[in-house]
Amino acid sequence: MKIQLYQFEVAFGDLEANKSKIKQFFENELNEDTDIVVFPEMWNNGYDLEHLNEKADNNLGNTKQFISNLANQFKVNVVAGSVSNKKDDAVYNTLVVFNEHGDLIYDYDKIHLVPMLNEPKYLASGNFLPETFDLCDIKMGGIICYDLRFPEPIRRLAINESKVIFVVAQWPESRLYHWKQLNIARAIENETYIVACNSCGNDENTEYAGQSLVIAPNGDVISEANNQETILSVKIDSNKVNEMRNQIPVFKNRRTDLYS
């Protein structure tokens, strides 16, 4: 299975500029044998938090149309990062996944909001844990940025047989060390692939780290970006998950009778 991660600088509060950049990527950089494309967090408007009430997508309407057309046209599955999304009179940070036919098969509202970026002031927290979804006949899962600091949701995805877990983010350069170490830790402790797509650049408020990376179930970093706009193209073998879980049977050895 081949995955392409699109690490780019999200234009601050400029939906059309971001859509144009993504469209150019599909037209000029997408490999024909790619199975899944991945975007960073909040790619539609970035962290223009003060204006999201006016700029956020309306119940994913714009996102569905734009990504669905691309997925269907290029016959590729898209883990389309996350978008600012207005519903029920509140703005959420919503991860969206489309299959190669352009169908929205999964969405998830970020449950952990970042106090350091004032997210709780402008965004509503999701009320449901992330669930698994199927792409390429494989169970997968996804979380958003700050969720990475909380091991419980990813462990739940792994228990429910996710073999690939996507982390979409706008993670700051100031905490780059945490970004890499936490992603590696989540891969090792859950014996799963971690596919982590970050943004890069500076929106005048925050310098974003880039350093998107793909990690094998044993913790090896298969591929890693720098801090510039770039595309990672990586092939992974989901059978490696089963091999790792047989070698070190963490899930069989869990003492659920003692865990509260």
List the helices and strands and how they pair.
Elements: E1 2-7, H1 15-28, E2 36-38, H2 52-55, E3 57-58, H3 61-74, E4 77-87, E5 90-98, E6 104-109, H4 119-122, E7 133-135, E8 138-144, H5 151-159, E9 164-168, H6 176-190, E10 193-197, E11 200-202, E12 207-209, E13 213-215, E14 221-224, E15 230-235, H7 239-247
Record keyword descriptors for this entry:
seven-stranded mixed sheet, globular, 260 residues, alpha/beta
How would you describe the overall organization of this protein?
The chain is α/β, with parallel strands linked by helices and 260 residues long. The chain is built from seven helices and 15 strands. The protein has helices spanning 15-28, 52-55, 61-74, 119-122, 151-159, 176-190, 239-247; strands at 2-7, 36-38, 57-58, 77-87, 90-98, 104-109, 133-135, 138-144, 164-168, 193-197, 200-202, 207-209, 213-215, 221-224, 230-235. The strands form three sheets. Strands 1, 2, 3, 4, 5, 6 and 15 form a seven-stranded mixed beta sheet that branches. It has a six-stranded mixed beta sheet with strand order 7-8-9-10-13-14, with helices on one face. The protein is globular, with a radius of gyration of 17 Å. The mean pLDDT is 97.
